[in-house]
Design goal:
Elements: E1 28-31, E2 36-39, E3 45-49, E4 54-59, E5 63-68, E6 75-80, E7 84-86, H1 90-100, H2 105-117, H3 121-134, H4 138-150, H5 154-167, H6 172-184, H7 188-201, H8 206-218, H9 222-235
Antiparallel strand pairs: 1-4, 1-7, 2-3, 4-5, 5-6
Length: 236
């Protein structure tokens, strides 16, 4: 339903090479830095892969085809293997970057994402908090809000989503996640308003229709709920 403590210290050099026996296909990978290039099938750069993990859907000898539906995606394309870090190696690799430069907010952010994807919510929240200290932005607050949401601390999640929306009200992902938190608190009308606002910003956002339908169902607005569910089928 949802989109979207410092680890042990490791030597930097141990994680700069790709293992020959690395398993890629079907696994999530992270970019080694925020300037990793994504190539289309014609070999032209069309995207910088940053901030988010992506799933490997095809493996070539020296490159990977990755796909992500996460904000600020979606996109799919090819990246060089040397520019990717596996989920297994990601905590050690991003810890090495933090050791090298503790003000590298992207390293804190990436490592927080790793913890979040591994359901280690406390570590994730601590790293997102450090990222927020270094970069007070819509994205960092939205990320920590999602971690609070996953931990089922809905009040703290809403505080972060409120701040994210205050910093930039044009990002639909902040609004839909605040709506999800409101829905979890049984605040159906507040949630519906957030889903309405999400759809004003992004009219084809399937998850917003789905969540709004669910909220309307719970307050017995069945015709409206059916209309929202029907829209998800049309868009899907």
């Amino acid at each position: 339903m949802i989109l979207f403590a410092i680890a042990l210290l490791f030597a930097i050099s141990a994680f700069l090479s790709i293992r020959e026996d690395e398993e890629w296909l079907g696994h999530f990978v992270f970019p080694r830095n925020h300037e990793v290039s994504v190539f289309n099938k014609g070999g032209e750069v069309f995207q910088k892969w940053s901030l988010i993990p992506a799933k490997v859907i095809e493996e070539m000898p020296d490159s990977l085809t990755i796909k992500t539906d996460r904000y600020p995606g979606p996109y799919a394309g090819d990246v060089k293997k040397v520019d990717a870090v596996t989920m297994a190696d990601a905590p050690k690799y991003f810890t090495s970057l933090i050791i090298k430069n503790s003000n590298n907010y992207l390293a804190w952010l990436y490592r927080a994402e790793v913890w979040l994807m591994n359901n280690d919510f406390d570590k994730s929240i601590q790293d997102f908090t450090e990222a927020i200290r270094l970069n007070h932005s819509n994205y960092t607050h939205t990320c920590r809000g999602i971690a609070w949401l996953e931990k089922q601390d809905y009040n703290k999640a809403i505080i972060d989503f409120d701040m994210a929306i205050l910093l930039d009200p044009s990002i639909p992902e902040s609004l839909i996640n605040r709506g999800v938190a409101g829905l979890a608190k049984q605040e159906h009308n507040k949630a519906i308003k957030d889903f309405d606002d999400t759809l004003r910003l992004k009219p084809s956002f399937i998850d917003a229709f789905l969540q709004r339908g669910y909220a309307r169902h719970h307050i017995h607005e069945y015709d409206k709920a059916i209309a929202d569910y029907s829209e998800t089928l049309l868009l899907g």
